[in-house]
What we know:
Largest sheet: 6 strands, mixed
Low-confidence stretches: 1-29, 322-328, 607-611
Number of helices: 6
Mean pLDDT: 80
Structural class: mainly beta
Amino acid sequence: MMKSHTKKRFILSSLATCVALLIAQNSLAHGYLESPLVRSKMCEKHPGSAGCQVLLSTQPGAMYSANGHLYQGDDYLDYENALPDGKICSAKGRSSSLDMPTSKWAKTAITPNSAEEISLTYLFTAYHTTDHIRYYITKNGTDLTKPLAWSDLEVLGHFDKAGSYSHTRWTETVKLPSAQRGPHTIVTMWPVSRGHGTRENFISCSDVDIQGSSVESWSSTGGGIQAQTDLKAGSTIKFRLFSKSGGGSVAGETSFVLPQDMSSSEWLFAIAKATNDKNMPAKIGTLKQGNVVLESGKTSYQVYVKKADYSYEMDIKIAEGGDDDKPSDAPQAVVGSDINVVATSSSGFAYKLDGSKSVGATSHQWTKISGPFTLRKMDNAVAEVVVDKNQTGEGSFQLTVTNKNGQKHTATMKVTAVAASATITGAASINQGNAVSLQAKANFAGSGGTAPTYSWSVSNNAGVQVLQGSLQQLHLASLVAGNYQATLDVSAAHGGRKATAKHNFVVQEKGEEVRPPVANISGPSQADAGVTVTLNAANSSASNGGKLSYSWSVSPHMALNANGAKLDFTAPKLQQDTRYLFTVTVKEGNLSSKKAHTVLVKKAANEVVEGVCQDIPEWTKKSYSGGTTVQKDGHSYTTKWWAEQHHVPGTAGWAGEPWKDNGVCK
């Protein structure tokens, strides 16, 4: 649980008013993900997080910016190559602290619905036509203690020509691609349209904690991990997770060096907790009501996974002067993780059952408990299971070890063989001309250390082949409107594995772009003190034939009587002429737009004007650095970040956005 940071918030607030927040102009952009909120804006709510503390001390302007972060260049649409690993969230920019790992930032809790969907709301802070918006999310098992790399991300959603009018919110519902749960990061890319000519991509990162139980359940694998003895300070424990579909590549690794002498239960708990904190696709502990719970004080834990695709091992390097990691009496049978393979087609294969890491054993004996597979070399520490070609099923095997005193111990493991299969992922409906693609996946990719061969064929509704491909990804931008079926054949030389998959999809003619409603305000621009004033937004129009809703705000604050499109207020009695900025937000469905209207309230007659805005300079048309205070039209304003000469205090929209209205001068 995060500790309270009330005192720290006060300190940060004080610093914010004293430090000139000079921001490089090329670090700002015109939009960001508002829900879930981006890192820099989350710092206003949770300034005590490790990421915000570093951001404040190194690039404070980014912390208080109401914008995304800009990448600009000829390659702005090729962002997966233009932005290097470790520099994605900062847009390869000057606010490098934004690239700190996910584990360093406060997170927004979100809960997916029963269809595994979440809502995302993007706030456009200035108008630009849009090429597209693409959302990414970290994959399950990403090491969140390291800066993000492209290999950590998978596509969460892609939307062409999203609305982008000043202060328009664009809300979409997306499906979690891998039923993600727990801490993750959502990365947003918003490149402007090619026709705009600025070659800009606006980028932001949002850290989330996805709530709820996963649609995939945890299941135990292998014999778990055990601690046999206490260890001395300086000993090193290493837990490694391997991906079987990735050819045995390391899918996660945790290393723990004992800072002091520790008991067996202490160091085992420490390595288990460090592993669980890394958000690997495996969890260590005990399964309780569908969740893996880690409890201290134990000398053995089970390892749980959601997909039968992983094996693991724990290595111990004892510091000099330490004891061997073995018991003094009873032996310990230690087997490898459960084996999951894809059946071959050319010939049978033998897989090793490894009991060589058993402790205190003078003899080993393997036996088959159940299953269709053949067991051989039963009296060796390392036995073999033979899975014949095209053979599928599950086998269970037991290792019995005996020490010199005749004491015995047993452990079991499973071998599962499944048929070769392939899948196609991609949209079932696309718009003509959009840059979309289909993705191939085979459950035997990487087996034997070789890549599979892909063969695509796309046919139209008449059965005529119109497109072919030989890569894992097939691009569909060239297709005209119509119904299509994609056929995928995947094969691998290793083991003769092969599989076929089909995917039906529709290419639709491109419709008209959905536009937000048009907001409008009518009413007087000047009023005398004490007079009732009416503003009306009834002339606003719905762009898509929907129903409109209205919300009002005013700066500086005053009492309002808002009723739908109509707003009434009584002009206050003031010591000086004062301008009030009224803003109406008009919403149609998930699209909205704003309109501002200024009313000058004249000072009350016969009122004595006391010292107004003393010692505060008048605003002039020039550039101002962050934290600068000026006066204009009886109000004082302070820059929230760098303001150019076209940014005018008290002006509606982006032109006035850099200026904070402090209210009437006193």
